[in-house]
Amino acid sequence: MASDARTLLTDKKSELEEQMAVLEEPPGSPGEISFGKRIGEGTSIAVDRLSQVAVHDQLQVTMVDVDRALVKLDEDTYGTCDVCGKPIPEGRLEALPWATLCVEDAAKR
Ligand SMILES: [Zn+2]
């Protein structure tokens, strides 16, 4: 069970790293972007960048949880809440293997 969780977490970690690398790639050269530019296009590019930043932030938050869950595996506290120490329900861990908080404490975060 514990080794399954580790596999899940390391898989998720490399998936996150890949997704973040894609988001961190610089957009096409400025020449390409301005070529054939129409009114309104600049706005949609700005919005795209903003949502990319939001996605990137979200990935980073998940990454912190994945790293923490891996440490918890080493500490043998995996599956217990970081705040109150109570066991995290199995269903929650199945849905979110990198959960480090129980539902109650996660809601407070
Ligand atoms: Zn808790």
TrEMBL record:
Q: Which domain of life is it from?
A: Bacteria
Zn-finger (dksA C4-type) intervals are 81-105
Q: Which residues form the Zinc finger DksA/TraR C4-type domain?
A: 77-104
Pfam families, alphabetically?
zf-dskA_traR
Is the keyword Zinc-finger in the record?
yes
* One Gene Ontology molecular-function label: zinc ion binding
Q: Which residues cross the membrane?
A: none
Q: Which Gene3D superfamilies match?
A: DksA, coiled-coil domain
SUPFAM superfamilies of this UniProt entry?
Glucocorticoid receptor-like (DNA-binding domain)
Q: Which UniProt keywords apply?
A: Metal-binding, Zinc, Zinc-finger
Q: Report the protein name in the record.
A: TraR/DksA C4-type zinc finger protein
Q: What is the organism of origin for this protein? A: Nocardioides luti
